[in-house]
TrEMBL record, chain A:
InterPro entries with a match to the protein in the record: AAA+_ATPase, ABC_transporter-like_ATP-bd, ABC_transporter-like_CS, ABC_transpr_LolD-like, Cell_div_FtsE, P-loop_NTPase
Lineage of origin: Bacteria, Bacillati, Actinomycetota, Actinomycetes, Streptosporangiales
Function of the protein: Part of the ABC transporter FtsEX involved in cellular division.
Protein name (database record): Cell division ATP-binding protein FtsE
SUPFAM superfamilies named in the record: P-loop containing nucleoside triphosphate hydrolases
PANTHER family recorded: CELL DIVISION ATP-BINDING PROTEIN FTSE, IMPORT ATP-BINDING PROTEIN
Domain of life per record: Bacteria
Lyase in keyword set: no
From TrEMBL, chain B:
UniProt domain FtsX extracellular: residue ranges: 56-160
UniProt key word Cell membrane: yes
Domain ABC3 transporter permease C-terminal: 182-301
Subcellular location(s) per record: Cell membrane
Pfam families: FtsX, FtsX_ECD
Family named by the database record: Belongs to the ABC-4 integral membrane protein family. FtsX subfamily.
Protein's UniProt name: Cell division protein FtsX
Length: 229, 302
């Protein structure tokens, strides 16, 4: 599903590469934790999958497509198959829960009838039934992140990328967020989650890829966060 | 659905930047109106040139009794013999096509027709005030120089007036006005481009959250950019409509008014005006679209 082959990425005005000859494979339906200290290359890894950045060398395949051969015109179609969740939720403050989720479908031109059918389903999947007409500022941090997950998942992407989704959320609420991510993973969606949260990684017992200074230093199935932290 | 979404976004964008939108509309309107006036003057000049092309004559005015012109001093006006000699001399010139004598009565009649609206002037001028003249028509209106040289100062001639010279002064004045209008129009178009650029930049900044999410969920570039471009198009269209109104007003009150004093046959037609309005509108909208697109490429990453 995601295939990195000897990928190196150096940002302009920086000597040290953000990713240094990284090769990794993520299969369909896998759940992968991406761990490592700040600046180790986790976010760069996720941005490369979205083709927000281009690698300096090496090849990246996502959902069977060679990203280096993907024209700019086709990037939106790639992104429709990838859902994204962030630490800061990125909801539209002037739209309610339903509208925030529906927005993701409206802007890719889905018919209204389809939107009316699938949005309530996804809102229920993330555990927000009955709160569809609340505004984001009326929701807790955990609930806002559930809205963001509903929006990321509503178009049934093949891959869900989560960049520290529990970074702004207390540990008790984080468990609920992880349950939703697990539920999404069980529908066959590949999940890649970058995180600092050792407790979550240790409790989930999923594959762990650890990055340090842009290099993969550990790739362990059913792993833990690691002793050093 | 799509159209609905885009129009609501456009409406929100225009309302948020209301003052900027007004600035764009006013600049586009004045710029396009001046461009249109320039084009109107242009078509007037060419239609008037056509109208006058076969009508310009060299008028050889003859001395009358007590004429104040120095050449005529003391004489009791042109004699019949002098007039006949003049006519033969002129007819003998190779450049001349025909000569016609116009007596005072005929001159007075023409004068009355040309100044039908000016009652003050009409009441002040009598038949006796009108000079007699020989109307010389040239084969080529450009060759007036030699004819005028030969006739100036000939006995019995008070003055030689070349209509072409008068017309040319008038046309060169019109051309200057046209150039001025065009230059100001170009400056205003430049200002409008910058204003639109700024409006789009503000809009893009205001809506960066929405566009960021649109990018993320895979909205196509066109879909992301269209609301911004539409804002420009609508501002341009409103400006174009205002410009059209200004042009119609200037035709009715300015151009048609001036025409009364010149010639009725070269009036600016409504068809010409319609095509000028269409052209200015298309240019206005095109400028808005181009300015929006160029700015979007800088401020909206896709």
């Amino acid at each position: 599903m995601i295939h990195f082959d000897n990928v190196t990425k150096v940002y302009a005005n920086q000597n040290r590469p953000a990713l240094d000859h990284v090769s990794v494979d993520v299969d369909k339906g896998e759940f992968v934790f991406l761990v490592g200290p700040s600046g180790s290359g986790k976010s760069t890894f996720l941005r490369l999958i979205l083709k927000e950045e281009r690698p300096d060398s090496g090849a990246i395949h996502v959902a069977g497509k060679d990203l280096s051969k993907l024209s700019n015109f086709k990037i939106p179609h790639l992104r429709r198959r990838i859902g994204c969740v962030f630490q800061d939720f990125r909801l539209l403050p002037n739209k309610n829960v339903y509208e925030n989720v529906a927005f993701a479908l409206e802007v890719i031109g889905k018919p209204r009838r389809f939107i009316r059918k699938v949005v309530p389903e996804v809102v229920e999947l993330v555990g927000l039934e009955g709160k569809a007409h609340r505004m984001p500022d009326e929701l807790s941090g955990g609930e806002q992140q559930r809205v963001a997950m509903a929006r990321a998942f509503v178009n049934r992407p093949m891959i869900l990328l989560a960049d520290e989704p529990t970074g702004n959320i207390d540990p008790a609420t984080s468990i609920g967020i992880m349950k939703v991510l697990d539920r999404i993973n069980r529908t066959g969606t590949t999940v890649v989650m970058a995180t600092h949260d050792a407790a979550i990684v240790d409790s989930m017992r999923k594959r762990v890829v650890e990055l340090e200074d842009g290099k993969i230093v550990r790739d362990q199935s059913r792993g833990v966060y690691g002793q050093a932290y | 659905m799509r159209a609905n979404f885009i129009f609501s976004e456009v409406w929100i964008g225009l309302r948020r930047n209301l003052t900027m939108t007004i600035a764009v509309v006013v600049t586009v309107a004045i710029g396009m109106a001046l461009l249109g006036v320039g084009l109107m003057i242009n078509s007037q000049i060419s239609s008037m040139k056509d109208f006058w092309a076969d009508k310009v004559e060299v008028s050889v005015f003859l001395c009358k009794k007590n004429d104040p012109f120095p050449q005529c001093k003391g004489s009791g006006g042109v004699t019949a013999q002098e007039r006949a000699e003049l006519e033969t001399t002129i007819k003998a010139m190779p450049q001349v096509e025909s000569v016609q004598f116009e007596n005072a009565d005929a001159a007075y009649k023409n004068f009355r027709e040309q100044n039908a609206n000016n009652t003050v002037l009409l009441s002040a001028i009598q038949v006796e005030d009108m000079p007699e003249s020989l109307r010389v028509k040239l084969k080529d209106p450009e060759t007036y120089g030699a004819v005028i040289e030969a006739l100036k100062g000939a006995p019995g001639v008070s003055n030689v007036v070349n209509q072409k010279e008068l017309l040319e002064k008038f046309f060169s004045l019109l051309e200057k006005v046209r150039w001025a209008a065009m230059m100001i129009a170009i400056i205003l178009v430049f200002a409008a481009t910058l204003l639109i650029g700024n409006t789009v930049r503000l809009s893009a900044f205001n809506r960066r959250r929405e566009t960021g999410i649109m990018r993320l969920v895979g909205a196509s570039n066109l879909y992301i950019q269209l609301p911004f471009v539409m804002e420009g198009v609508i501002a341009g269209l409103i400006g174009g409509v205002v410009a059209a109104v200004l042009l119609i007003v200037s035709k009715v009150f300015l151009f048609d008014g001036v025409q009364l004093y010149l010639s009725n046959n070269s009036e600016l037609s409504w068809e010409t005006l319609a095509s000028i309005i269409t052209l200015t509108m298309v240019i206005g909208v095109l400028i808005c679209v181009l300015a929006s697109f160029v700015t979007l490429r800088r401020y909206l990453r896709v």
